[in-house]
Give the backbone structure.
Amino acid sequence: MRRFRIGLTLRIVAVLVVLGIAAFPLYWMLVTALSSNADLFAERPRLLPDFSHFGVFVDGLAEGKVGGWLLNSLLIAVGTTVLSIGLGIPLGYALSRFSFRGKAVLTVVLLFTQMLPEALMVVPLFSLFRRFNLLDSLAGLILANVAFVLPIVALILKGAIDGLPRELEEAARVDGARPLAVLTRVNVPLIAPSIAATAVISFFHAWNEYVFAVTFIFTPEKQPASVGIANFIGELGTPIQTVMAVAFMFTLPAVAFYLFAQKYVVAGMTAGAVKG
């Protein structure tokens, strides 16, 4: 019993240490945003936030177009997530269940695309988007993000579908279900954890993406927050408190989304890993 209590205590301490390490950057952004200039350059840094400087958050929202930037980031992230999952489910199902010429090559190509850096795709995508008038539009940026994240979404969903017994689909076909109904009513509910995991991956990629956004978006009102925050950095000075306040507001929605979906993410990591 004593050994059990010691082990439980050590596990709790380990969890608290890991949680502290993970949450410290967010906490330090809050402390920095609520610090005065004297505190920022003092010999001993301030460890607790001074809420008397909370007006920096109001100033951050009032200065520039922070609200619009956050809304643009949300639209881009949601659009990328929905489109990636909508295309990734049938693609993953086709790779898992159908046999066709070039299937192995297609799978390898999808895997190979994840080895390419975004910077390598900027020039060809820029030329392609200019031809189809997709530059300086949120729709074009969503398509660019989908092109980059769709392969990993399809491969994750393929692995999840591989773990499903084919007998379930055969039973549905015997009952008269069409192929689309088999996919949407049988397979999709069973791979929901993996869909949640890919949704988190797609959302975080689009929310944090910078290279495509700074290259394809020219109008300041259409920029996402990942690009807009960089506009506060000037040649003669940078309002550190404002930057940290906006960065803190930019981080919160992503953290909240992950906390909401974390239980599905954990389940999605193991979906399809064990058969039986």
